[in-house]
From TrEMBL:
This is Sugar ABC transporter permease. Gene3D superfamilies: MetI-like. It comes from Protaetiibacter larvae. One of its GO terms (biological process) is transmembrane transport. It is a multi-pass membrane protein. Keywords: Cell membrane, Membrane, Transmembrane, Transmembrane helix, Transport.
Amino acid sequence: MSANSPATRIEPRRSGVPYVLIIPAVVALLAGLAYPLVWQFITAFQDYGLAQQFGKPPEWVGFANFANLVLDGEFWAVLGRSLLFCVVTAFATVVIGVLMAVLMNAVGKVARLILQIAMLLAWATPVAAATTVFIWLFDRRRGVVNYLLDLLPGVDMNRYDWLGHPLTFFLVASILIVWMSVPFVSFAVYAGLTQVSDEVMEAAQIDGANAWQRFWRIVTPIIRPVLSIVLLLQLIWDLRVFAQITLLKDAGSKSGDFDLLGTYIYKLGASANDFGVASAVSIVVLIITLAISWAYVRDLIKEDEAQ
């Protein structure tokens, strides 16, 4: 009987050491998140406004805050806008990041080093600084983008206000967020590409597979775990984006048509002092985040059971 047959296969002993090692990280995570999360859950079921900040006991209202959201047309508009924004931006980031990773893997050492340094600089730029640069670029009076587009025959972009119209506002926001997020995806995918065997790729090429077939049928299955996690992270980050939208709104319009979930929650809490409804919206965002994450967690469980 073969040593590799199912009858003689020796199952590896499972140790509890990995679970012990992650206890400090779990404790630190709970210590940092437990109180804010519990307070948020409790406040979502209360009438908590400005008076409560000065000592007045909050009134328990049950699911009234959530019922108000269901009947609030502005909330549904913000929710739909945020979901569309995060999906489009996240997929654009992953696609461009994969292309940049493939480019880094294909070029020589010098060109690769230049690309990596350029992306590291973009990645390391503070959010406020990067957003300010984009505001200058798309400024309606002295912006470089309007100036260059205005040079094209038949194009009139003189004093066009990019941040004054919802469609172009979110286009600028998407470009900004993609520009800042692509380096992370590129480096993660590039690390996965280095694990692809050159011998396998050469054998596939000899068998007649073209570049697209080699990438889709060989490379993609190998880097699929990397693609899954970076897409998941981008969806979560882009759903909760706040700083970039806030800074762009400060330079453009304060209208609610330019709000995403992050700025909408801030407006409800800090501006309107309606912390109960703001907490209810936060719970909705948490539920959406968990729903997005569950697809990835489910795949991990299936892979673990298959091993």
